[in-house]
User: What shape does this take?
Amino acid sequence: MVTLRELLPRGYAFTVIGITVGVAGLVSLGAMAERITRFIEGGDRFVLGQISVAGEGMGMGTGFTAGGLLSASKIAEIAAVPGVSGAQAQVMLPLNTSTSHFLTLTQELIMGMDLSVPVPNRHYRELPVGAGRPLRPGDHRATVLGADFAASRHVGVGGTMALGGQDFMIVGILEKTFTAPDRFALVSIEDARELWLRRDPLLVQAFGAGSLRRGDLNSGAAVGWRDGEDPDALARRIQTTVRGLNVTIPGELSRLLRQSTAFFSALLLGMGALGLLIGGLSLANTVTAAVFERIRDFGIKRALGATDLDLLGEVLGEGLRVSLWGGATGVLLALAIGTAVDARLLRDGQQLFLFSPRLLIFALVFSVALGALAAGYATLRIARLSPAEAIRRGT
Amino acid sequence: MSKTYAGPGGAPVPVLAGVDLELASGEFVAVAGPSGCGKSTLLNLLGLLEPPDDGEVWIGGERVSHHGRRAQARVRGASIGYVFQSFLLLSGLTALDNVLLAARYVRRDRSEARREALALLERLEVAHRKDHYPPQLSGGEQQRVAYCRAVLNRPALVLADEPTGNLDDHHAHVILGELRRLVAERNTAVLLVTHRTEARAGADRVLYLSGGRLTSRPPDPVA
Assistant: This one.
């Protein structure tokens, strides 16, 4: 049976600690970068999955449906445009009006959906429900909460949630998507309209005058397209066919989103590069130093008949084991720190780290490969010396 | 053989200048000389631990100094044993593993080498310390372990560089006794470099290194 002592060569404790610190830094920075990447990718995926339409004008609604009111007749006209597979009326409201239009990707939203129409978003046919059930047609005063939304309020399925001064029964909690829906409270469109009317006295007056019906109270619509349709071309077709609309072109919106998140992209690229540099340098330096520290041992072994190949094999074997130990403990350390930090942040509905399998595998492979390279390099440098010179330098 | 090192500023420092030495099997030769005269360098060249600038090393009819690195490593492992003044044990290995290290690189059967190593440690009265690491051993114990390592593969030539330099009289006596026994029982050629006058007592020949050359006559004392 292989013992722990055989797996970890004696005298390498500090080397392993050095590698652990480097890899932990690499994994932590990488996990933060992964978190941001997933957020941006998720948003991009959402906007590319539907054509978002609002009424002409501005000042109503929020999120992807910011614009003027979109009447029921306009939605019917949109649904009739050739190539459209469906148009779902929506009401998006900021949960907290005091921060209404700032940071729309991260703000908490109430999203009312017309549940009689299938969700047209091609990338989110159904928002994944982690606990409870999705909203169904006919649900009244019922809500499905995003994962962060629910976590920050410590609520679960079966509890109640006050939205806009009204109590809603929580029927489901979404799985974590790492993007916008994590901060949504999904309700039926009728409930969302009710909340909107309670919030906006002017709308009540408009109703009183009889110029508006409840079905016209939509902040926008999500529009889907038939297979084979070019969504950008269809969006332009809708814009020209139906008058009085603000139509977002998915391709343009994606570009805009990427431009507006370019800073974050650059930041995470820098974080990744920094992580690789710090982690890589730390690891390579630690392993190289550990090998050079043993220069006397190599001289002795060569005096006892070891060939260059013998030494290279030994050092690579040790380098691999030490790097694997350091890499694994580094990953565990980063996971422990990240989990502890996120457990604290999650109370406020935040998550800083995303430890994806690809990141963890990359960190392990990176540490082992770089460790072996560094060990091999140091050994080849030492092999140039005569045994006597190696013993002299190491003594 | 000749050897010159580069000194400060690259100035040449000649150490050996045309040394000629022949050792027969079963011969015990002691080399004496003042500190810094090149005794250790002589052993390094003879033991293929560094190359001479000029000259050749022959072992058993083979010109080993002109072998490639790999072949020289094989010669070092199989035909030459080293006993150093500072023991040069590997601190990360136990006493037994230090001895067995000599067998590893000549691809000896491990169980047979282990039996022989334990017998050697037993005879040198350090078997009870076989699982101890060098820092846990006294100087005398370390040198006895180093000696076991040097002779495990029954080399034709043993080079001992001040092997008693860091030992008290008792332990020095033990090591010198073992070297003499090696010559007598195994017909090994032993070259001993030492300051100790009593260490040279049992040698077949005593040579003196002075001015980079070996002589059989002690150098004239400096007036």
In short: Residues 169-186 of chain B form the longest helix (18 residues). The two ends of chain B are 30 Å apart (CA to CA). Helices of chain B lie at 39-46, 69-79, 95-104, 110-123, 139-151, 169-186. Strands of chain B lie at 2-6, 12-17, 28-32, 58-59, 62-63, 80-83, 157-161, 189-193, 205-210, 213-215.
